[in-house]
Amino acid sequence: MVIKSTIPVGFTESVREKYNCKNIIFSPEFLRESKALYDNLYPSRIIVGTDMDDERLVKAAETFAKLLRQGAIKEDVEVRYMNPTEA
To answer: pLDDT tens digits, residue range 31-51?
Structure first.
């Protein structure tokens, strides 16, 4: 499951604990009001938060980031991977 939104710090970890589910990846949105389409097509960066110690989730995060890059018109978008709380 991917949470693609703006959420409070620690939310992803609390959901993982509450539902005893590790299969959650977080990708914050960097969208401006009335500029959402443009911001998705020309992202300043892509950030994906996942459990960096879980190889399976890291691969899933890489796949998700690849999909976001493919959907963008801008080339060479910087991608950063980190734990969900930092993201």
So the answer is: 888 999 999 999 999 999 999
Distance of CA 38 to the CA centre of its chain: 18
CB atoms within 10 A of CB 43: 21
Q: Which residues pair with 46 in a beta bridge?
A: 79
Q: For residues 78 and 44, what is the distance between their CA atoms, to the nearest angstrom?
A: 7
Any idea what DSSP says for residue 43?
Answer: -
**What percent of the chain is helix, strand and coil (3-state, nearest 5)?**
35, 20, 45
Q: Name the residue among 44, 75, 15 with its Cα closest to residue 2.
A: 15
Phi, psi values for residue 28, rounded to 5°: -65, 150
Structural tokens at position 10: 């620690």
Q: pTM for the full model?
A: 0.87
